[in-house]
Specification:
Blueprint lengths: L13 H17 L21 H12 L10 H7 L2 H8 L18 E5 L5 E4 L3 E2 L7 E2 L7 E6 L6 E6 L5 E6 L9 E4 L4 E5 L2
Antiparallel strand pairs: 1-2, 1-9, 3-4, 4-8, 5-6, 6-7, 7-8
Length: 196
């Protein structure tokens, strides 16, 4: 009987490589959760505190005009953010890929900073990067700042909210036209507002 050998090596596409890297990074960053309450944009895995101190801090935040900086202490942020938001936004954490609220979200509207409400992205600039995190090619003008990040043995550009300095994600130079940039964001750092 004649046997045939089959060539099992296939070139990987860019999307397959990015997906594999994203899964490894997510697992390393805090454990991969395949099913999460946060897979829906309308669901939250844990609620932000709602005690009297949290209400006072939220009222203080709402009183600050949108064109002014927010300079809260970490203790104040801890009182109004969920534990996962605090870990990502105040400690520069990363949420798991492919099981976060906005990675596969296609609504028309705007994305705001989940901490302070600053307008960050228009949904028209969102694209499918294949990485498992929401990706945009351009932020709203003057809404973000970038800071060099050399953690975990990598050199990247961290993206922070220009109003409250919360960690949103990172920006890379492998995005689509017209900018060639990929703003790779954490869903937990964003709050979506549907276009009316």
């Amino acid at each position: 009987m004649k046997t045939r050998s089959v060539n099992t090596s296939m070139p990987l596409t860019r999307r397959q490589v990015l997906k594999s890297v994203a899964l490894v990074a997510a697992a390393t960053a805090g454990g991969l959760r395949l099913y999460s309450d946060q897979t829906s944009p309308d669901a939250a895995p844990d609620a932000a505190p709602d005690d009297e101190a949290a209400k006072q801090i939220r009222a203080k935040l709402q009183a600050i005009p949108m064109d002014q900086k927010v300079n809260f202490t970490n203790d104040e942020w801890r009182k109004i953010l969920t534990p996962e938001q605090y870990r990502v936004m105040r400690e520069a954490g990363t949420e798991a890929a492919f099981c976060n609220a906005y990675w596969n979200h296609h609504g028309k509207g705007r994305y705001h900073c989940a901490a302070c409400g600053n307008l960050i992205f228009d949904a028209a600039t969102k694209f499918d990067s294949g990485t498992g995190w929401p990706s945009f090619y351009q932020p709203v003008k003057d809404s973000v700042v970038t800071v060099r990040d050399s953690s975990f043995g990598m050199v990247r550009d961290e993206v922070r909210c220009a109003r409250c300095d919360s960690h949103l994600g990172h920006v890379f130079d492998d995005g689509p036209p017209p900018t060639g940039l990929r703003y790779c964001m954490n869903s937990v750092s964003l709050k979506f507002e549907l276009e009316k």
